[in-house]
Amino acid sequence: MMYRQSTEHRRVMLIYTGGTIGMIKNPLTGALDTFNFDHLMKHVPELAEFDYQLSSYAFNPPIDSSDMHPLLWAKLADIIAEYYDRTDGFVILHGTDTMAYTASALSFMLKNLQKPVILTGSQLPIGVLRTDGKENLINAIELAAAADSDGNPKVQEVCVCFGQQLLRGNRVTKCSAENFSAFKSYNCQPLAVTGVNIAFNDKILLRPTAGGVFTTHTQMDSSVIAITLFPGISRKVIEHVFSYKDIKGVVLRTFGSGNAPRLPWLTDAIRKATEEGKVVVNITQCQMGAVHMGLYETGNQLRLAGVVSGHDMTVECAVTKLMYLFGQGYPQEEVMRLMDIPIAGELTAEDDTNIL
What we know:
Blueprint: E1 2-3, E2 10-16, E3 23-25, E4 32-34, H1 37-42, E5 52-58, H2 70-83, E6 89-93, H3 99-109, E7 110-111, E8 117-120, H4 133-145, E9 158-162, E10 165-168, E11 173-174, E12 183-184, E13 192-194, E14 198-200, E15 215-216, E16 224-228, H5 235-243, E17 249-254, H6 264-275, E18 279-284, H7 297-304, E19 308-309, H8 315-327, H9 332-339
Parallel strand pairs: 2-5, 2-6, 6-8, 8-9, 16-17, 17-18, 18-19
Antiparallel strand pairs: 1-14, 3-4, 7-15, 9-10, 10-13, 11-12, 13-14
Helix pairs in contact: 2-3, 3-8, 5-6
């Protein structure tokens, strides 16, 4: 469905956390230094042409996205909650390195979200001649302000706007450190594409539960680890990780459709961990596709050991979803149940049609 900009006054808040989009080159050292939000506005005079009410909130000091952590996710959720009733949409300016983690985390922390929360950034600083930051920022603002014929927000979920695409926040991963199209959503179609017009993919846009009230759940439990299997992986390492008492959840990145080596010590370590109350989630190392543990014996052995399917979740999503569920204090059985089903559009059910 095509969308054209409305002349209605929409209220959009820009939240500047830091990142490349808000940096400027130091003429003495050649290094990139952060500069304040006013400078960001100065470098994008086109923002004055929007028929929107723009407000801003800036982290002080700005942070590099490599320093992002759950307490800052909670801060973002709290800012959104504070201004929620006075704002039609939010744009978060964020470094690209951990943007997918932040987008995934916020998708779980912001419950019954009925307004757009759109993360964007850039590969080049906004003050550089060939910057991609201007286009990303302008597109993100327009998407955050987009409304349907009844005045309701077109987008009512957490997203990433980058490289002329609007992507579901908990379905993205950073795929390039150099290209302007830095993010991909391999297993879910774009929610919108920004060309001459903005074309929304209405059939897959999320809508909150009828009558649901917007709330935030900011407690996250970081007792989670991700392990990538590879040929020759150490038995000692596996047994140490799975037996470590402070670990509650393990994201196991397996081969193909969810397969692992047929090593008795591996399945024994996993089985012992699940019997001790840990949650082990199986996701594929492949960029595209999903886990089907019953397809081969190499996957079925994991299912029999108590591993739960992560379907087609990204590693960023699986990690933050576990952190969120453990943060809510759910017991092992409930965490396993919720990891197996979509709670914020983060995985594709077997009968869904939006797999690419």
